[in-house]
Amino acid sequence: VVIGRLGHNPDKPTVTFYGHYDVQPAAEPDWLTNPFELNSVNEYLYGRGVSDNKASTGAWCAGGRLGRLPVNVAFIFEGEEENGSRGFSHAIMRNLSWFEGTQLIIISNTLWVGENVPCLTYGMRGMLSLTVQITGPERDLHSGNDGGVFAEPMVDLLRVMATLVGSGGKVQIDGFYDNVEPSLIDLAWDSLKDSEEFSLEGYKAALGVPALTAPPNKRDLLVTRWCRPSLSVVDMRPGAPVGMPGQQSEPTSTCYSVIPKAAQGKVSVRFVPNQDADQLVACLRNHVEQSFAALGSSNKIDLHVEARGKWWEVWQGSPWLAMAEAAIHKEWGVHPLYVREGGTMPVASYLERVLCAPAIMIPMGQSSDNCHLANERIRRTNLFKGKNVIRRLLEEIAAMGGVGAGNAASCTGKAETAPDGDVDDGAVLGAATACAGLAE
Amino acid sequence: VVIGRLGHNPDKPTVTFYGHYDVQPAAEPDWLTNPFELNSVNEYLYGRGVSDNKASTGAWCAGGRLGRLPVNVAFIFEGEEENGSRGFSHAIMRNLSWFEGTQLIIISNTLWVGENVPCLTYGMRGMLSLTVQITGPERDLHSGNDGGVFAEPMVDLLRVMATLVGSGGKVQIDGFYDNVEPSLIDLAWDSLKDSEEFSLEGYKAALGVPALTAPPNKRDLLVTRWCRPSLSVVDMRPGAPVGMPGQQSEPTSTCYSVIPKAAQGKVSVRFVPNQDADQLVACLRNHVEQSFAALGSSNKIDLHVEARGKWWEVWQGSPWLAMAEAAIHKEWGVHPLYVREGGTMPVASYLERVLCAPAIMIPMGQSSDNCHLANERIRRTNLFKGKNVIRRLLEEIAAMGGVGAGNAASCTGKAETAPDGDVDDGAVLGAATACAGLAE
């Protein structure tokens, strides 16, 4: 984590920027250029990490250094975002004074919804990562010698997991769809309904699926992706997971004759305002325990929450949002589309809580940037105009003067200052961002 | 494969012996002695492979070399049994002349049912190894960005697999329990019903399970283990398996945010006389395809038979069995228990077919030998008396003279002489014995 600050003028607003400079591996064989060398082809710059998240971080630096800074700036450049933000909360907590007076956090780690129109991200889903484990006999057994006479953990597990999702992809857990805010999509829909930036057919083609389970219209598809909770079974395998009771260091490596003594399933849940993580976990626990009890099995079940990350939501009357919109409009000549994302960025809500300031997200990359994939790229125009948007936004903020806008006056930061042991901070950040850097 | 022959006297019977000298790895931390050094502690010899299958092979060699051999002997010592018997059928087919005139195949690669009474194994289950694969989107997708709008392969797979096994472990596939011979247990039960060599409580304790799904009496438990077909789900994981359409070299390594584009489940089926492998595969295929069709998913399903191994069964009127019983009785002073095994030894039925002779199995090790596990051992008494049993058996056979007993007169061997490409030979042997050397 690189932490820095430029300016301590109490008469100027203070802005904190977050970006990350680490990248995903680049083992995909489809790279056409050296992934660790910056290559310019036609309108695009190619290289691992150019869109996620080096370009935005670079644009910020370039935007900030043009002439005398009109605001105080603090910044955090992280190098572990793709690997769980390990130590991040610890580093922030030990250096809180560097961010003194922060009135706004700017993050640029999301994407446009399409190719041509700049966007402002105003909400993201929250996430829960859970492991369901079933443990049985004392050791792995032989399917020939002993198959057929006892309840096998893998069979129990798949019978329990199969009850989670029903036809049409509907999650069958009591309470799963409770407390969903129906109006989450309104702001995005106002700007997207007449736009060609997102189409049903284009989205299906990008996914590479012949059909969707979401209703076949643009609005309902966006509502499902952005505004409704979802549940994906992301893994099942034999063996006990690391860190759980009965663990082995590695899941059992099995072949056809081995009945594993334990089996684990991994579930990724995304939830939305105003759902509560603890309440959802209770619903899930209740569901899997009841499903398991119905089997009458002699095995044991265990549900473990590996990570939780809060949904993130801008206060829609926020003057910061209006300022960002104005900066984008001045630079690009068009009003940005307001968009949400289905992923989660635990860093956003975490920094809001510890720095007692709201965050805004200004995406720079296009939806076709291939973040994390082969031939990751960013359009040159986006990079250069992005730099100017940052500059313009800082000038807008400077013009506003030193009074905070939309700052959470009641936030003291003190409740969050424990550097370790708070499940909602370090542990969450660690596990929650371990997989997909762009947006969990 | 080491192939040899002693004696070509056409007036003497010819016996072929099969044993394997390779072993499983010995990575278990619980070894009390060096697993690759022979150690004698109290009544036992300890070391990796002592029971599976070096002791029996050694006993054969020792039994055969005492004085002038009363029979012609051919032998096969294999070094790839624990690793799929790769090249085995090829080696046999190229050297068939070494086994000319074989009237009996002797194998000693099974176990006693208990600790004190020698056994004769007269039947083993057959096996089918199958992979069910479901493929969906063109690439892995992000559970945050795209979760909730399309049919996920892993969810489809577990919903299909969950229909395989119902309550009490009953397999729910139409036709799965057809053509089962109800009298398979009779011979074993006659000798076991009043014996204390096998008990319900001892078996549960050995497995380390608090309860069994099989009916709670000794006979039904043995019927279920030995005489009824079973189905175990031995693996489920994301990614496409190697060697299947849409394969990747490795299954996808996933974490909580990744929805895998494909998922695979592995199933181990054991079947019994007089069930037919092809018919069972048809039942399985029909079942998974119908279950999948009921989901209305846009994904694709594929069922692949990875290996099949025939059940093995002695002709119960066989004079060879009577001779083996007599040899055991003379040496141990007790009549052996007749037992079956739930596992499969594809080598047995394979050699019967290519050498046109029946096989018998004379187990030497006790049920507590820990084959494949830490502290594998064999009782010294079993080893020395086993050697004598072999010697006595060869003498019994010599006394019988040169006329074959129970030989399949109609077998020409020619139908089986294709060294490669026969699914029931090399390919089966290869995959079928890949996992558990003692008995698949």
TrEMBL record, chains A, B:
Gene3D superfamilies: 3.30.70.360, Zn peptidases. GO terms for molecular function: metal ion binding; peptidase activity. Keywords: Hydrolase, Metal-binding, Protease. InterPro entries: Cyt/Met_Dipeptidase, Peptidase_M20. SUPFAM superfamilies: Zn-dependent exopeptidases. The keyword Lipoprotein does not apply. It comes from the Eukaryota. GO terms for biological process: glutathione catabolic process; proteolysis. Pfam families: Peptidase_M20. This is Uncharacterized protein. It comes from Volvox carteri f. nagariensis.
